[in-house]
Each structure stands twice: as C-alpha cells, then as structure tokens.
Amino acid sequence: MNDHEPVFKKSKWGTNRYVYNAAHPIGLTLIVVTSVLTIVMVLLMQNRAGPFAPPAPSPTWSPPPSQDPWPFPSTAP
Question: Is the dihedral of CA 63, 64, 65, 70 positive or negative?
Fold first, then answer.
C-alpha cells in the first residue's frame, strides 16, 4: 500500500470536486461498492421490488355480519 496516495483526489475536469482514487485500495473498494449498490438499486426500481414495491391493495369494505335485521321503527312515541 502506498501511503502517499490519497483516497480522494481532485477531479481533472476543471472543477473543485474530489473523486475516488483507484490507485489507493480503499478508493478502489469505494468504487466497487458504489457501483454494486447503484446496480442493485436500479434493478430493484426496474422490478418494483423492495422499497420500490407498490403498496398492497387495501381490502374492500364489507359491512360487519349481523344476525338481527334492521330494527323496525317504534310505534310508540
């Protein structure tokens, strides 16, 4: 392991951003882990699985079972 190589290095695209350094073992590991996680997330989204699954349909409402018929109106006041 080269102790002089940083894990992150400045981007060569002219910005002030940092990127993973593939010359450092930890940087290379971060590149692989990020790539694998990205691929897994895209596959989960495409298959609508895991956290991207649609919500389960709610059961339709049905009245509770009753043995008594509706009460008849009272004839007394």
Answer: negative
Token pair of 55 as six digits: 């919500």
Contact residues for 21 (Cβ-Cβ < 8 A; gap 6+):
5, 6, 7, 8, 9, 27
Q: pLDDT tens track of the chain, all 77 residues? A: 556 889 999 988 888 899 999 999 999 999 999 999 999 999 999 999 999 999 988 888 887 776 666 666 776 66
Question: What are the tokens at 11?
Answer: 């981007």
Phi-psi region of 28 (alpha: psi -120 to 50; beta: other; left: phi over 0): alpha
